[in-house]
Amino acid sequence: MNKKIYIKIGILLVFGLCICAGCSAQQGGKYTLEDLDNLAEIKIYSAENNELIKTISDEEQLYQFNQCSLFYDSDIEEHQDELEKDLEGAKEQYYLISYKYPVARFGEKELEENTTITLYEDTNIIKMAVSEESIKAFSIPEEFLIFYYELSEEEMNFYCSLVE
To answer: Is 50 left (phi over 0), alpha (psi -120 to 50) or beta?
Structure first.
């Protein structure tokens, strides 16, 4: 083969690499539905009058919310009664209701309620209620869908920042 063919092949390879690099650079800031765990939006309501304060659909904030909402506590059952008692008399401040995309590809495209997180005044304890409609396989009594968590100051500040 002569030099012209090698030069043409080299130019085509470089051109192909540039196209591929350009495509991947455009996707750098996007999150996939798996990254967002199918989370579509969050609506924040005032507990005082149940008034909608804010709707969040920004992918970055949804991703951060998802990362903060992953509660892994191996002894969660042991502390539920204690945390629930600590909330007695506490005033509800905000409801953060998360919505997800429906699993079905066809048919109803309306967002489904996933969880409701209740923030209380002057405490780092929250209540998380999983929506009955988010569990399709079988019916679960409501008392098994409510969980209480004690958050760190940093996590609590994040949730409060969503309201602002």
So the answer is: left
Check if the beta carbon of residue 81 is closer than 8 Å to that of residue 127: no
SS3 call for 154: helix
What whole-number distance in Å separates Cα of residue 26 and Cα of residue 18?
12
- Quote the CA–CA distance of 150 and 88 in Å, as a whole number: 14
Which position has the token pair 């929250």? 126
Q: Residue count of the chain, please give it.
A: 164
Torsion sign, CA atoms 66, 147, 149, 72? negative
Q: What is the pLDDT along the chain (164 residues), one digit of tens a residue?
A: 566 665 656 554 554 444 544 444 444 557 776 667 788 999 999 999 999 999 999 999 999 888 876 555 556 778 889 999 999 999 999 999 999 988 776 666 789 999 999 999 999 999 999 998 777 777 888 888 999 999 989 999 999 999 88
d(CA 132, CA 96): 16
